[in-house]
Amino acid sequence: MALIDVVVSDIVQETSTVKTFYFARPDGTPVGRYSPGAHIDVVGPTSLTRQYSLCSRPDDGDTFAVAVKREENSRGGSVALHELAVGDILQISEPRNVLAIADSATHHVLVAAGIGITPMLSMARYMDVHGISFELHYFSRTEEDAAFLPLLRDRCPEKLFTHLGVDREQQESLLVTALEKAPSDTHVYVCGPEGFMDKAISVAERFVAEAAVHFESFHAAAQADAVQNDSFEVELDGEIYEIPADKSIVEVLDENGVEIDTSCQEGICGTCTMTVLAGVPEHRDNVLTKAEKEAGELIAVCVSRCAGKHLVLDYY
Ligand code: FES
């Protein structure tokens, strides 16, 4: 994936652990607009690549902004980013979107917990400005931990439902209350910690079709041990590639000179998604929706495998 150089043009401390970083082109030209809900890869000071949702105004175009929560127990990506200073240069990818606003929906329910607010912020900003019907349910431990709460309260107070310090049972009943009165053709969008997302998605699917539930996860799905994998073969452009138990499809294609765009390599960003022309994928990603997985027409080739012995793939 092509990367572009950007300069850190501003840094805002949102909460005790969350900073917003603004990225501009070094020559001052606009970075461009993006579709609400999109994310970018950020190659940090330690050369780690991480995905962050864009939270600047999608229609702005001058700068991109990402909000990063400092995670002391992470593999170092967020800690290193928190050391950035205005004027530092780093690299980012073009925006990609796995959480796009559904054009067909008559109403949109955004559900965010913690730092999961970031994609929802760009979506809320866009829908508010463009007169699109939505409501935002924002779960946070405390008011002080809730990044962008003052901004949201200022811009769209009547669309914002803030749920502070509620326990797990309360979370479920609040979501049920929100969704049982949602009009038909409502779409639901979820982002937050893994356990919260599982619960929110399962509640949402009680009220709207699976295909109307959208989510963005920044957590890799738990993977089976390599020893439990089976080998299989992949056919691409008439060539057959043997995928052994200890290698991914992407690794084998790469070894054979077939370039597939990748980013996270963990099944969470969607960059490596390919089309399945024949065969049954064994999905191990956290990026395709349940409906997409059941349809079996797409596969994230960095982590997913074959439920049988033969997959025929094409570029997405
Ligand atoms: S590279 Fe990110 S999902 Fe495969």
From TrEMBL:
Residues 1-102 form the FAD-binding FR-type domain. GO terms for molecular function: 2 iron, 2 sulfur cluster binding; metal ion binding; oxidoreductase activity. Residues 230-316 form the 2Fe-2S ferredoxin-type domain. Its cofactor is FAD; FMN. Keywords: 2Fe-2S, Flavoprotein, FMN, Iron, Iron-sulfur, Metal-binding, Oxidoreductase. InterPro entries: 2Fe-2S_ferredoxin-like_sf, 2Fe-2S_ferredoxin-type, 2Fe2S_fd_BS, Beta-grasp_dom_sf, DmmA-like_N, FAD-bd_FR_type, FNR_nucleotide-bd, MRET. The keyword Acyltransferase does not apply. The keyword Flavoprotein applies. This is Oxidoreductase.
